[in-house]
Write a structure and sequence with these properties.
single chain; 278 residues; mainly alpha; elongated
Length: 278
């Protein structure tokens, strides 16, 4: 029964994830704020919500009942069962963190559009707990990756820590630029896209590209989406940060100009009168 439930969640996960793969690119290239950007963007976001939630359920089931989830033969030797159990729990711990990363990234990306610079609305316990949990999982996975020499765990552990810290920084920073919410929006959705394409290339794409990426090259399908997505995020962030600096500089220049052109006062000095009368 557990295996059947897990399989149902898995096929739902894959089907909705496929929708996310195709809809991701439309908002990226569509006119920002336009009808297509908003409508297809919502489809992508809700697809990623579904992918993240089904992923969390699948990994929790596997962590709690690893042998029943994957229908492992109970007649195997105790040593072999222990090895399989450890492998299942290790990989599903990683996938739990990845699902949590997608969930937080998607939720934060939509929330910043809703609240803009009204960041007090994001300071509720329900909003902050999943973000903090992501950071904790990232630290744990990075440590496990270091101890077991697993580059994949260290890379995505670092990404999760960075994402968690970035969200918390935006929420609690005293002042932010006027377009910072926009940077948070596209950063979050690109993070979700990284999760979608990582899962595709690492699992589904492995059947297509398995004969190309062998040995240590198997890490490439896992890491490539993260590298490309992170680089794209940095480029966009730099672009919009420069725009914000220009706006601030123009506003500062305008204020200085207003001050320079302002009258000194209503009183006029009578230069024609003797000094003793002034």
């Amino acid at each position: 029964m557990i295996h059947f439930i897990h399989q149902c969640l898995f096929y739902s996960h894959v089907a909705i994830g496929t929708v996310a793969l195709f809809t991701f690119w439309v908002p990226v290239f569509a006119v920002k704020g336009g009808a297509k950007h908003k409508s297809v963007g919502k489809i992508f976001a809700w697809s990623m919500y579904t992918v993240a939630i089904t992923g969390l359920f699948m990994t929790l089931i596997a962590l709690a009942m690893p042998l029943q989830t994957y229908d492992i033969d109970p007649n195997l030797s105790p040593v072999r069962i222990a090895e399989i159990t450890e492998q299942i729990r290790l990989m599903n711990s990683f996938l739990f963190m990845l699902s949590l990363l997608v969930l937080n990234s998607t939720h934060h990306a939509l929330s910043v559009v809703k609240y803009k610079l009204n960041r007090d609305a994001m300071k509720s316990t329900m909003y902050l707990l999943p973000i903090i949990l992501l950071g904790v999982c990232g630290i744990g996975m990075a440590v496990i990756g270091y101890l077991k020499s697993q580059v994949l765990f260290m890379v995505f552990g670092g990404i999760s820590i960075s994402a968690s810290f970035g969200m918390l920084k935006y929420i609690f920073q005293r002042e932010v630029t006027h377009n910072r919410w926009l940077i948070e929006h596209f950063s979050g959705l690109i993070g979700s896209g990284i999760g979608a394409y990582t899962a595709f290339f690492a699992f589904g794409g492995r059947r297509i590209l398995g004969h190309i990426f062998v040995g240590q090259l198997q890490l490439i399908p896992w890491i490539a989406p993260a590298v490309i997505g992170t680089a794209f995020t940095f480029w966009l962030t730099r672009k919009y940060q420069q725009q914000a600096k220009k706006v601030v500089a123009q506003a500062s220049s305008s204020r200085k100009s207003e001050v320079a052109n302002a009258p000194l006062g209503n009183e006029k000095l009578n230069t024609s009168a003797p000094l003793s009368q002034q």
